[in-house]
Amino acid sequence: MRKFSRRAAIGLVATGLVLSGCGRDAGTSADKAKDVGAGKISGTVTVWAMGTEGEQLGAFAKEFEAANPGVKVVVTPMGFDVAHDKIISAIAGGATPDISMIGSTWMGELAKTGAVEPTPSNLIDKSAFFPGSWETVLSGGTAYGVPWYVETRAFYYRKDLADKAKVKAPTTWEETQSFASAVKAKAGASQGVYQNFRVGSWQEVVPLVWQAGGEIVEGNKWTFDTPQMVSALTQFQSFYKKGTAPNKVAEGAFPQNFIKGEAAAFYSGPWMIYGLDKDGGAGFDQKYDVAPYPKGSAGGTSLMGGGDLVVFKKSKNRDAAWRFIQWLSDPKTQVKWFQTTKGLPAVQSAWQDPALTSDKRVAVFGEVLKTAKTPPPYSTWEQVARVLEGEIQKVALLKTSPAEAAKVMQQKADDIGTGL
């Protein structure tokens, strides 16, 4: 099972280490992108990639090699648990590959090291990508890298249980609570809505802040102690208070609790479609559906994640590296990559292909991606995210109030800073 960060969507393994003392100038908005040549390319392009990407990119790249005789793409697969630290060590030792896949919240940290190249504007058109995905490669107003694939969250629900309880997929916060109460009272679901309150729980709450019309950062300051954060935490906690979301569920119970009908709904990413269809057995795909995030007072904004690609300044084959990334960003290639790995295209025009429009459940994510947002590209985000998770768990366990949690989040985040 993939958490939201399974494909390095949010980069949860990051340690917050910044190489400010490694003898390199930090990346700044003054960095100038160099054009990439249009001539023939050759030589070896070394790539580091994680998870499914690392396992399948090598074979997938054969088509690029065939179109560019003399070019060899060598992919080194690695686990998510070691990827971040391996990249940081490689930067410190001056032994980086040409290209690396990175988690979408790592950019602020990596740009600050000065080790990654600005994105060449003559090769990559930023308008081709979802706005939220392009934000994941920005640092100080400069793009360092390219979005490869994207992920976001939507509302999964058991259609059969909803039909039994005579309710529809919720479209607002208020309807979500009514939905959870109805399926518990009338359809036998002990968990109206499953909410994660452990590692990664910030992914449950941050979208609620945006939906309430708030932000988690303004300028160079964290903004957690706000009415919008209190509203988000109050909405999150309301399910635990009313008993429609359990706070005593054993770790590892999800997603079997959904398959068994114990949990009637949850929020997650597109990969769950394929896992549920497989693990649920024959006919289970008819028992559930996917709907957009229920809207708060300011809309239904969801969370943008995914994987980005960067080229390091010490690349030994710079032009070929960027041309390979350009090929991976082509709409047709993006569709083929989706068909190979189920990684959603970051390029908007790829979503017009029947491969993505034919499954209505997948198409929901395409709509959600249009307004999805990303956490700020700050080098300290991972540290701040851990703070949020600690307070969110207390909120879920009813050990603190939303207002008090927001205050503590603000105090601890201010102590950490934004790293700017």
UniProtKB/TrEMBL annotation:
Signal peptide: none annotated. SUPFAM superfamilies: Periplasmic binding protein-like II. Belongs to the bacterial solute-binding protein 1 family. Keywords: Signal, Transport. The lineage of its organism: Bacteria, Bacillati, Actinomycetota, Actinomycetes, Streptosporangiales. This is Extracellular solute-binding protein. It comes from the Bacteria.
